[in-house]
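Protein modeling request. Please complete all fields; requests missing the sequence field cannot be processed.
Requester role: graduate student
Desired output: 3D structure, token encoding
Chains: 1
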Amino acid sequence: MTAQTETAGTPGTAGRAPETSGKVTIVGAGPGAADLLTFRAARAIAEADIVVWAASLVREEVLEHAREDAEVLDSASMSLEDVIAVYERAAREGLRVARVHSGDPALWGGTQEQVDRCAELGVEVEIVPGVSSFSAVAAIAGRELTIPEVAQSVILTRLGGGKTPMPPGEEVREFARHGTTMAVFLSAARSGQLAVELLEGGYPTDTPVVIAHQATWPEELVLRCTVGTLEETVKEHRLWKHTLFLVGPALSASGTRSHLYHPGHFHGHRRARPEARRALRAAREVRGARGQAGEQAAGQSAGQTGREAAGRE
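Delivered output (313 residues):
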């Protein structure tokens, strides 16, 4: 049996991961426009000894924040193994690396595999969030994605059948059954399939769609159509990459007034006005009664349909 020894002055360290050396900051650079970079992201780039950036997805202007003596590498020509080799060097030499991704690193950025490898190397990791293209496109379109009593959820997804398999139950048609706002990424090359799945999921053909290509770039193109005309619109403009779809009734509905700023709503910083509070409660009771009536009518209709089907059998 081989005895384990510990270094003098560092009791209890045997078998532990190596102490952290170097730092990797995974930076979300936003959808394209350099002025959508956050202050924290700009600082991380400015402090980096090495900047690894996606030249095909991130504007070159972001490099204006880098030091003159910083080493700049284009990740477009690098594999994951090449990037990890940079992190290994950072661990050996105690360097700071800014890994600059497009959009937000939390979404389709290959982030987790880098974080896991850095943990194995003993390299400190910080993730700086960025503006995602779905929120940028909503801003360009001048739309809120969560309209009271129309849509209160936003589904972020992509079409199945691409390079990365989709888990069971995460097909676009399944998400479409919710009828709420959807942001569909990485799917322009298969616009026909996308349109079919949206319709199969239950969106009416006249459901509004916003198509954005190269959002916030000089080449930006924003188109409005419907689910029924989605495929022909994409093909007419020959879009196949760098394209995002926003889908749902919130893209055209005005909805109702938000309760947050209603004079009858109170919170820790504002009191409700008594008369407005009573009016707000009365309105809620009316909507609740309508909702119950609708559910009862739907249940009766389903029951009648079931009885008719049983009679035919």
